[in-house]
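[audit] Reproducing an earlier prediction to check determinism. Same input, same settings, fresh worker. If the C-alpha cells differ from the archived copy the diff job will pick it up downstream; this log only records the rerun itself.
[audit] input (181 residues):
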Amino acid sequence: MKKMKLILTLYFLFFSYSVQAFEFKGVMLGSPPSSVYGSFNDAFCNDAKTEKSKTYNDHSCMVFKSTVAGIPTALGFYYFDNKLWKISTFELKSSGHNELKAALIRKYGKPTVEKNTTVSNAMGAKFKNVETEWVTDEYKMVLIKYNGKISESSLNIYSSNGMKEFVLRMKAYKKGAVNDL
C-alpha cells in the first residue's frame, strides 16, 4: 500500500510540474479578461464589432503604456470565448531586442527554433534579422528582431487551442466572402 502511495505521489508531482500553464506579465494564456484588469489598471477592453474582426478575437484588451524586460511597449490581449489566446506587443523598439531575448531565455528556457534572414529598408540597406521561437504543445512564442520596420521588434504569444480556433474562423470567414462574390 505504501509503495502504491509513493508511486501515485511521484506520478502526480511529475505531471503537475511538467505541464505548466504559460504566464506572461502576470496573465495566463486561457484566462478570462478579468485577469488583464487585475494586472493592468489602465487596460482598455472591448468586444469585436465586425465579422472580420471576430476571426481574430471576440474580445480584446489594450494596455497602451507598459514595458517588457524594461523596454517600453503597448500590449494587446485577444480572447476567444473569454479565454486569452494571443498576446502581442506594439511599438517595441528593436534596440532592446537582445535584452528582451536574454530575459525570455532566462524565464522560458532555450528557444526551440532560431531563424536568420536578411531584411532591407527603403534605402536598400541590409540588416540581419532574427526570428526566435519557443514552441510547446500548449503555446508558441515568437520574437522577431525587425518586424515591418527596422526600428521595431515584435513579440507574439499564441495558445495552441487559440491558433486552432483562429484557423477555423478564418476558413469560415473566407468561405463566406467567396459566397458573397
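[audit] rerun output stored. Observation attached for the diff report: Residues 4-20 have pLDDT under 50 and may be disordered.
[audit] end
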